[in-house]
Amino acid sequence: MNSDPADRSALLARFSAILGAPHVLRGADAAPFCTDWRGLFTGQALAVLRPADAAQLAACVAACAGEGVAVVPQGGNTGLCGGATPRDGQVVISLGRLNRMRAIDATDMVMEAEAGVTLQAARAAAADAGLDLPLGIASEGSAQLGGVLATNAGGTATLRHGTARDLALGLEVVLADGRIWNGLRRLRKDNTGYALTKLFVGSEGTLGIITAACLRLVPAARTREVAMAALPSAEAMLGLLGLLRRAGESALAAFEYMSGGALRLAVEQIDGLVDPLPSPAPHYVLIEFSASQPDAPLALALENVLAEALEAGLITDAVLAASDAQRAALWRLRESLTEAQQRAGPTIKNDISVPISRIPDFLREAGAACTALAPGITIVPFGHAGDGNIHFNLMVANAPGQGEALMHEVAEVARGLGGSFSAEHGIGQLKTGLLAGWRAGVEMDLFHAIKHALDPHNLLNPGKLLREHHQE
Amino acid sequence: MNSDPADRSALLARFSAILGAPHVLRGADAAPFCTDWRGLFTGQALAVLRPADAAQLAACVAACAGEGVAVVPQGGNTGLCGGATPRDGQVVISLGRLNRMRAIDATDMVMEAEAGVTLQAARAAAADAGLDLPLGIASEGSAQLGGVLATNAGGTATLRHGTARDLALGLEVVLADGRIWNGLRRLRKDNTGYALTKLFVGSEGTLGIITAACLRLVPAARTREVAMAALPSAEAMLGLLGLLRRAGESALAAFEYMSGGALRLAVEQIDGLVDPLPSPAPHYVLIEFSASQPDAPLALALENVLAEALEAGLITDAVLAASDAQRAALWRLRESLTEAQQRAGPTIKNDISVPISRIPDFLREAGAACTALAPGITIVPFGHAGDGNIHFNLMVANAPGQGEALMHEVAEVARGLGGSFSAEHGIGQLKTGLLAGWRAGVEMDLFHAIKHALDPHNLLNPGKLLREHHQE
Fold it and tell me: Are residues A189 and B292, on separate chains, in Cβ contact within 8 Å?
């Protein structure tokens, strides 16, 4: 990279000419874009650019490519792995002004929206059309569609509808050389060539910058039933899941895990949260059945499953919400777990997935490994059990300096069970070492071959996802 | 390519050493592998290889790579676009002996199977475990999983569960240099790196040869209700689909279109087929509601929708099957359409998709375009209307020599409506010209960049999907 300041001032002038000077941020104005929200990473940006549309964004990328300056795309800056935080002297491209909702079609059940639309705004627009964009993540008020797609976000609705990748029908992407690929097709089936949309989703801005998307929508739920059950063991979770699938697989919308420790910490930390069940249990699940018709007999189906599970010893107690307020209160328990952990002290966040059948093994083995390493540690796992995705979080106040070792232990347990260390949070700059280790060999060679094919000069979010790039 | 026969005999000896001589077919033994089943394409193979496992297959690919000889992977040879047919002097690799069902896990709802397992065998194995592999295509008795994945096959079950790509959780793939990528992970969520599995699916053997897969399964349907409705117009189809989604989107398993012409041709051509409705109509749909629970009240829900649709004038008549035999009879009508057309004379098969909302426009405009070009033509469209996928087939006995022009006209109508000329059949060697035309520019450059990254010497199924490869 050329570090001659004169060259950079020409580039900065070019940005101002493209965007207008108020949309080229530097110094204190740029600082909020240079630290991730968890405060794990801080970098320096040559500038933060706020383009108004894909053409402006593409012109800026082309200008950067001409000077060999790397770019870092950034959405709502809610990522958990530092994927949108610059390192040193890069140009941050903030997508927030690309925030137009272009179209929603209720017959096609498709939304076309720009990358800077927040997930919350996109979901609200879908709801106005009687539809749902089925992605539920804690940061939806700030997270933007482009970032959600770039990290292939998951959340609480993936059990039925899949992750962001499964919802993406088409994309518009600015490439490393500043050209724009328009793949904004609204088709349910399209076998014309390689699966570019699926490839760009989850590539964390390292292959291209997503500027707009066509997303699959689903009918809004008009009947919802929510229950919370206490379980005597993690094994019982699998039995309960089996009963629920048989009773109504197509209605099963959520099967969320809460460890007893995570639930009790939330009730302690957050005013107004109440454990609705009288006796403490080691494991809980939150279950949602939903349907698009207004009068689906889901309460009866769920009641029957819970009665059968109680009789079979798969659960020790359960509560079925009887009103919208009660349903919201049960979901608030689940959704408060992360905030409660942040209030309670320093945490290690893990984002493990394993085959669903191995969840009990994972919880047992990972717990044993962490306790062996740090006897005083508090283990507060929760997650999306129906997807095999467990956030095996740890309160590490009693384990100073052991964060990396603990993360490694948990990942190794998952690895032994055929799992993944990154189910839905991505790699960013936090987990590039883990990725390089786990996927070493043929798979890493394929990643680098694709990276080199689409970004030969390593200008798109370098050092993210891939630790280093074999440049020629 | 080196055409010195001496060189080739060394290569052939190498194949025999790897596979055993009986699994290296030549001459008359190789001929059945050198013509596609529609008889559109015939080529010459240096040899047809029948490896027993991925290691043997990889060794053969490595041997070919060393000599610069191209390979053509072939499954059940049921493709519709000549994607598995060799051109001249290539080595065909038949996957049929890689036919082990490695595992089915009912808790994970995952199957791991080798590429040569037939779709029918895979579905039977899933059914034995109380599950379903939700891919329904006419050729399932012969089609193999590897080919189904390589073409991203669709069929009659995609409305609810997506195409082959949506079901693929992980793959094992032999690469152009003979190395094996083992990506056989059984995870519902895995964000460790680029979406290689999704990229290989649908790449038609041009980026790698799929040798095994982990596939997502779903619970078997234990309640099924099937109806057939007559519609006064194509527009009414959209209204009916809307009513069905509201009444039970999560139960809606099929929404299949049959034109009046296609249905009447089938009843004429195939003994024992009966139109269950008394008066002819211009359009029909076959509807299936299904659920995993044995006693779901789907008949009532479907009856109510049909009554509402009749009252609203969206349908003119309907029949709801009252027994398994009646359900099978309705499905047989739909499934006989292709065979009936083949019996009736030469056909042009189109594989169009459009946004669902544009189906009526497509049917009207494509019909007008074909009739203008060939006034005597018989138009017999049908397809997967819930996915926007219409096989706009034409009986061309009265339009000799106009096949290509008609295909072009139909594709152009789809293009004008934001559609695709290849929804589920792929490109093969039949549609490379269309692909090159439609996706010219940035998108074609991306295709070639990826092809070159993964197959730099153009040895994997050359001339398929991509018309030509920019070799260096």
Answer: no
Query: Chain B window 38-77: which residues touch A at a Cβ cutoff of 8 Å?
Result: none
Q: Which residue has the tokens 């195939």?
A: B270
Contacts of A464 in chain B (CB under 8 A): none
Which of A173, A446, A450, A454 to substitute to test the interface with B, most B CBs within 10 Å?
A: A446
* Under 8 Å between Cβ of B387 and B353: yes
Cα angle vertex A256, ends A255, A258, to 5°? Answer: 145
Q: What is the pLDDT of residue B6?
A: 52
Which residue among A189, A245, A451 places its CB closest to the CB of B154?
A189
Taking only the tens place, the pLDDT of each residue in A298-354 is: 999 999 999 999 999 999 999 999 999 999 999 999 999 999 999 999 999 999 999
**Hey, is the C-beta of A304 within 8 angstroms of any chain B C-beta?**
no
> Which contiguous run of DSSP H or E holds residue A437?
helix A432-438
Helix/strand/coil for A267: helix
**Yes or no, beta carbons of B202 and A195 under 8 Å apart:** yes
List, edge to edge, every strand of the sheet that includes A71-74. A24-25, A44-49, A88-94, A71-74
Q: How far apart, in Å, are the Cα atoms of B352 and each of A29, A186, B1, B383, B409?
A: 51, 13, 37, 9, 12
**Tell me, what's the pLDDT at B300?**
93
Confidence grade of residue A293 (pLDDT, cut at 50, 70, 90): confident
Give this complex's ipTM: 0.97
Q: Classify burial at A424, counting beta carbons within 10 Å of its beta carbon; exposed 0-12, middle 13-18, buried 19 or more.
A: buried
Query: Given this model, what pLDDT does residue B5 score?
Result: 54
CB contact under 8 A, A105 and B355: yes
Q: Residue B430: which residues within 8 A CB-CB, separation 6 or more?
A: B40, B41, B80, B81, B82
Residue B7 has pLDDT above 80, yes or no: no
Q: What is the pLDDT of residues B84-115, one digit of tens each?
A: 999 989 999 999 999 999 999 999 999 999 99
Greatest alpha-carbon pair distance for chain B in Å reads 77
The single-letter code of the amino acid at B2 is N
Is the Cβ of B391 closer than 8 Å to some Cβ of chain A? no
In 3D, which of B402, B338, B345, B418 has the Cα closest to residue B369?
A: B402
Please write the tens of the pLDDT for every residue from A372-412: 999 989 999 999 999 999 999 999 998 889 999 999 999 99
CB neighbours of B284 closer than 8 A, spacing ≥ 6? Answer: B228, B229, B230, B231, B257, B258, B259, B260, B263, B277
- Chain-chain contact of B426 with A203 (C-beta, under 8 angstroms): no
Of residues B170, B189, B165, the one with CA closest to residue A198? B165
pLDDT tens for B113-169 read 999 999 999 999 999 999 999 998 989 999 999 999 999 999 899 999 999 999 999
Chain A CB within 8 Å of residue B359 CB? no
Angular region, B82: left φ>0, alpha ψ -120 to 50, beta rest: left
Over chain A, what is the mean pLDDT? 95
Chain A residue with CA closest to B167: the answer is A166
Instruction: Judge whether residue B4 has pLDDT over 80.
Output: no
Cβ–Cβ below 8 Å for B420 and A192: yes
Q: From the CA of B431, how many Å to the nearest CA of chain A?
A: 9
Residues of chain A neighbouring B289 (CB-CB closer than 8 A): none
Residues of A within 8 A of B193 (CB-CB) are 427, 435, 439, 443, 447, 465
For residue range B413-442, list pLDDT tens digits in order. Answer: 999 999 999 999 999 999 999 999 999 999
Share of chain B above pLDDT 90, in %: 92
DSSP H helices in B68-218? 119-128, 145-150, 158-161, 164-167, 196-200
- Helix, strand, coil % over all residues of chain A, rounded to 5: 40, 20, 40
Contact A196 B446 (CB under 8 A): yes
CB A90 within 8 A of CB A64: no
